[in-house]
Amino acid sequence: MFLNQFLLLAAVLFCIGVYGVLVRKNGVLVLMSIELILNAVNINLVAFSAFNQNIDGQVFALFIIAVAAAEVGVGLAIVLLIYRNRRSIDVAEANLLKG
Amino acid sequence: MMALLAQQTEAVIETAWIPNAFFFVIAAVMVLAALKMVSTKNVVHAALYLLIVLSGVAAVYIFLGAEFAAATQILVYLGAIMVLLLFGVMLTRAKLGAETDLDHDQRWIGALVGASLLAVMSYSLWDAFGGDKLPADPTPQDAPTGVKNTQLVADEIFSTYLVSFEVLSVLLLAALIGAVVVARRD
Fold first, then answer.
1. Interchain proximity A73–B179, CB inside 8 Å
2. Whether A79 contacts chain B with CB within 8 A
3. What integer pLDDT is reported at residue A1 of this predicted model?
4. How many Å apart are CA B149 and CA B154, to the nearest integer?
5. What is the reported pTM?
């Protein structure tokens, strides 16, 4: 198997995730797209770990999985707070900092 | 004897395309599910499409010989994070049918950014790693014989990355307490 088939799959998933983050208005959907991006990066790390015959990449991937779990917990708490205060999780409407 | 050996190597060569074919089927399913995830009108369906992509990622880890990462992927993402996301959908009272207003109006700008990013990345990947093949056995060369991948990961985490591992546990605790404090109703 080629290294590039894994890297290109990860690149496609990453770009779809970027599109989702930019286009979606629902806060929960934005968080889902961020999960997609993190998974694409993880595929890269594990692929290079196999390519270089070095275990460090897998350890990094496991760390990223743990940090993603923490991120989605705090992120959902923030989305919930926005919903409670504004009765909407439209990220385009969260513009109180705009002058 | 030689004829038998030759026959065996021939059989190995003939079956080498099978994992590759499986990989391309799984990759196609993942890309289609990811595209549906960012385009569907239903929040719960988006979560289920994400589930397909995440299980595909676990399958890709198996292809790369990282079975512990695949098991962790299934436990943490499919088990924990999906439930958390579905709780988020429930608590923000998303409609259970199709919604009309999930995307920004200027969708083409996002598509343009994504497509140009993909073009740049795939060109540079092709340029840098054109025909590089993965080694047949992804375990490190200097590892003792008979040691499995999971054992090597455990050794690495609890020796080289011990401090980072402990910091990570504190980070998880902080995130847990932070999430409770932020989402508390009072």
1. yes
2. yes
3. 81
4. 9
5. 0.89
